[in-house]
Amino acid sequence: MTSSVSPFMKNLILSFEQMDDGFTTVHAYNDDGMRLFTEQWISFISFQHESSFYGLHHDEETRFQTLELVELFSQSNIHPYVHVSGRAQEDDVTISTIQQASSLWSSPTLWDQLSIEDESLVLHAEDVSDEAQAMLTSAIQQKLYSAGLTFSDIPTLLPFFKQGGWPLQPQSGNADVNVALRLSEPESFPDDWLLETVVRGKRSSSHWTPPVRKKQSSISDALPDKWKIHAPYVYETQTQILDLMNIEASPESFLSRNLSDLDVRHFLRDDAARLQALGFEVILPAWLKVVKDSKLRVKSNANTTSFKTTAGLNEILTFDWNFSLNGQAISEDQFKQMVEENREYIRAGNEWFRIDSNWMHEIRQLMDQTETENWTVKELLFRELPDALVQGEDSEDEDDPLFQFELNQSLKKYLEQLQDKKELPTTIVSPHLLTELRPYQQEGFDWLVFMREQGFGVCLADDMGLGKTVQLIAYLLHVHRTNKTNKPSFIICPTSVLGNWQKELAHFAPDLDVHVHYGQTRSKEESTAAFLENIKPDVVLTTFGTASQDAESLSEIEWSSVTLDEAQNIKNMHTKQSRAIRKLCGEHHLALTGTPVENRLSELWAIFDFIYKGYLGSFRKFQENYIAPIERDDSENHKQKLRTKIRPFLLRRTKQDPELLLNLPDKQEQREYCPLTTEQAALYESLIQETLFKLETLTGFEKKGLILKMLTKLKQLCNHPALYLKEGFGEAEYMMERSEKLARIVTLAAEIAARGEQCLIFTQYIGMGHLLQHCLSELHDIDPPFLSGSMPKAQRDNLVEAFQEKEFPVFILSLKAGGTGLNLTAANHVLHADRWWNPAVENQATDRAYRIGQTRFVHVHKFVTIGTIEEKIDKLLADKQALSEDLIQSSKWITEMADEDLKELLTLG
């Protein structure tokens, strides 16, 4: 732009800065290089820019969209007494680019030079820089968006644009008449709407339409004499309107068309918005602009003839439907007529209301289902109703929902029992249970029995240490001693806790006949079903691996109940093991897990597919309905829907829940029984035979030394064969396979850490400490420090302080080095990896966590290998609690035992 010598000319020196968000920041300077305040210059470059209110939008802010820059620098907006230039060379280039784009912006041939290629606008013009082309196409897209249009609208709008409809401006109209499109509401229900072309004089407030006799006449013939001269303008304007609408009509005569509610919806959504965006006048009923959304209320009363208890779950329901619009009752026939006619706008009294016709169709479909499908009580309680039926999209009043089921009192109470698990019938605990249930355990037992009687599978997800095992044992005694079923119950668990189940069943319910289906000794000569029919056990125990291997024979048996302990083992639904176990057939399916399954969605689906097949739909549907919106969008609405859906079948209590008043002890000790692997058992037997042979040739003093040396080897072997064989460590998974005890400790520690809790692991052996570090680090990305006797005091003190500050979740300690003098109350779990023959030493170690300052109860896990010297001495000490403290201060008392007693102690059970 060349400088002018006019004394009125004002110079603006501009700088431009492109921002990351697509906006451009502009600053202005005077001839002396001083930066101007926004209000000093903004009005000069926007003095004809109506959309920014002539610069008032930018009284302080100087950020501009591409569209604004192109419009501000167009020929029609340039101030005659303002000259602009760039502050730097790159600013001059920017000004030149904007001016190129602005020149094309208002060119009458613009749309002849544009084409759409690969869903992008491409400009076919010479001497236009790539930057100017990009700016122009960006401005066009922004202009369309600001008018409520999209890029996809361009093909249909091209004829309009080429005829001068670009840039989008209000229609200038004619000096004497104005042409508009008018929509009129029906005179009465169920009449149609009327869409017509109307004409108004510029000085008149009323609109004219041709009389009925001239509706089919040409525009020129239909117009009054005073307006006949404007017939070409009326024809042209109506033709443009019709071209822009998705409607077939002759442009020769005045438009007059009846519309249904559905047509009106499409017109308002598509055509009216587009016409108004392009500057044409569209006249709508005044009430339509403030139309109130649906006031239609639907209530259905569900009843049965004589619902009393669970026996009525399969009774057929009857439904009584009631409808009201804005408080006025509507008959069922009227409602059905509204649905059939796709009514969307309904008059009630003197008011009009918009009804969601899709929602009404869903209600009608639901009515048809209840009439033809014979819903039962069970189906109603657990049927997943569409969201729109449960509450309207804009309905915030929970006391006045758009749709509601009303249940009779007995049905309502039953639903509350299932949802809240309160006021359940109390079940008398079998006298064969050799322990007392705590109040919350009694509630869990009552719930298990109640759900069995209803025919609903369950997931008992109580926190670790709350006694899921004893609740299930009470349930099994009820099933087999009170109900006296002749079918066995089946328990599937990880190999590492198989021994634990044997011991717990024998301890709490010795009256139950338990058969272990595991290992090489399990039935193979005849079918498993025939074998079990012959021995008639109450309970059959097996592992996940064995259940998978023997899936074919086990699936032939109808079990009284099938229980999965550590049910998350079937979380991968595609594995052979998971598929095989989910095919098992039991009268009642139960899942036990201490993990918060509601936060692991794929695991949750697999568990529910086992306890209540089909309830959560196919996995693909579950992914679409829940996993994707929850994991991708963190949708709280979908989380709540899922919680509501699974709530009746899931019982989860945590130790931290103050409302449960669990009344737990300050310290709870629990033995964790683990079997030897085949490798460990062979090495164990070999060592015993070798030692017993040597003992026969040794004197008393030598004999004691050999026994003490053998005890150390046996305890190391019970921990892991690599410690006994003095081997190096291999891959963590391989090391875990060789020792069930190691696998159980590592898994338990990882679960504790995952819950945000902390634990101490005590061991007598340096090698075991390093092996635990190796496995936790490689498999679970946990790097626990190991406090041993060789650690300097300063480092030891720093580790203790860091653990108390919760900087790491797992702390491994040598029993001698860490067993006394430390305050580690941040831990609420203590794991004894190997047993010290002196209970006082173990208790001292436990007291690192269980001491003054501990605010939570401490869960102590003592790991014992089944059938070995560990189990036998543990039982011996428990049986001989009267032994004096000085007698059991060390392992030396074992060396004093008679040969026969020693042989019995060492023999592998």
From TrEMBL:
Residues 449-614 form the Helicase ATP-binding domain. It comes from the Bacteria. SUPFAM superfamilies: P-loop containing nucleoside triphosphate hydrolases. GO terms for molecular function: ATP binding; helicase activity; hydrolase activity. Keywords: ATP-binding, Helicase, Hydrolase, Nucleotide-binding. Residues 744-903 form the Helicase C-terminal domain. InterPro entries: DUF3670, Helicase_ATP-bd, Helicase_C-like, P-loop_NTPase, SNF2-like_sf, SNF2/RAD54-like_C, SNF2_N. It holds the Pfam family DUF3670. The keyword RNA-binding does not apply. PANTHER family: SNF2/RAD54 HELICASE FAMILY (PTHR10799). This is DEAD/DEAH box helicase.
